[in-house]
Amino acid sequence: MSNSYSAAGVDTAAGDLAVELMKSAVSATHGPGVVGGVGGFAGLFDVSFLKSFERPLLATSTDGVGTKVAIAQALDKHDTIGLDLVGMVVDDIIVVGAKPLFMTDYIACGKVVPERIAAIVAGIARGCSETGTALVGGETAEHPGLLGPNDYDVAGAAVGAVEADALLGAHRVTDGDVVVALESSGLHSNGYSLVRHILAGQDAGYTDHSDDLGGLIGEVLLEPTRLYTAPLLRLLDDPVTGDGVHALSHVTGGGIAANLARVLPVGSWVELERSSWTPQPVFQVLAEWGGLSLADTEGTWNLGIGMIAVVRADKAAIIVDRLTSSGIPAWTLGVVQTAARDLTGFEQGAKGVDGGAVRLVGAYA
Asked: Cβ contacts of residue 175 below 8 Å, gap of 6+?
């Protein structure tokens, strides 16, 4: 019996080939700030520009894409899951007003299939390019016996920078601020365990066609996460709109109300009008298949809102117009208030944050 590494199920040659296949996509994300290129033990990024900051703050975020990878694996389609990863990681950086600088990724798999790994990383690189983020490093780990040959999981981390006095958050939000919704592209990367549960109850497969969804179920569910960083940075950098954005909330796990509550000050509250938008068909169909109302899923899915901006009332109209013109439909959801009232039924804070209070009211359009 051979006791070599390859006999144990680890193919280092396949790993080397995967690196070669992904190298050009990764290098395309590199600007003058990247030092050393691809292949080092650590990625290097020149932050000399921070010397010009009065008080530079570094922002960092890490995440994965959850069980959405199961659908990519079932369809053997791996070129968009990287976009989801960038969305989950880099779009958390912009929430505090920071410009993303660089990102690293980690892929764990049962067996290295170079073309598959290269497709995943190409998607990450594409997302990094769209958000102005350098992909400076990563790791692919082969875990035979722990993961099946076609199984993998992805995770990533990113770092950004922001001037302290430009930091966004609850401390900027005031009475009368307007809450603006930014449309999602679909489910993004949250709530897929519920999706898979619903499909199992329907005895529906990812390769099945659904007239209700308008295509193959798996392809509809793989719609990549919309990336918000670039258009939001343009808003923040614009002299007309830059001072109009007070807070941002990335609508991920927990849904709309819980995530917005995290970026509102204690003592404030807002009612969001469901009648201001119509959730996309994917949410309506899945809820119907699961015997659920849309309201039942509000703590799980984004229901058509991927990011929320809390903005000055006198800048709300131009911010909505600028976002919509940039390709992200946007609309007003409600108004932040601080007057005393009974907050029964409101979501108050989330994930350890003592924030404001939020609830959705009315019926969906």
From this structure: 268, 336, 337, 338, 339
